[in-house]
Amino acid sequence: SVSESKVLEEIRKLNADSRVHAILVQLPLPQHMDEAKILREIAVEKDADGFSAVNVGNMWMRGGIIPRALPCTAAGCVELLIRSNIQIKGKRCVVIGRSNIVGMPAAALMMAKDATVTVAHSKTNNLP
Prior knowledge:
Layout: H1 4-16, H2 35-41, H3 53-60, H4 72-83, E1 92-96, H5 103-112, E2 116-120
Parallel strand pairs: 1-2
Helix pairs in contact: 4-5
């Protein structure tokens, strides 16, 4: 297994390499690695997943700067609804799960499309 320091070193090399346009870290990472620390190391302009604090912040800001990238699963779910001609605006939406990878980005993107969003998760009481 590779060490966390080796992964960080490789990300730094990729950040500095002008031939590399995007970096994607496959999640989840092994338990001995600090996921947040590794994701923070990726340069914002090379963040293919949209997981950087800048991209996440821009995703949540109404009327702000468009994020450089969006988390692909959440963006794909919204795109599927749009291509299926399902109106999102004004709908009530329940997102099950609050992960940084899918749940929270899905909630943000649905709210950006003017849905009213409820997020349910493992600590939500009285789910059917």
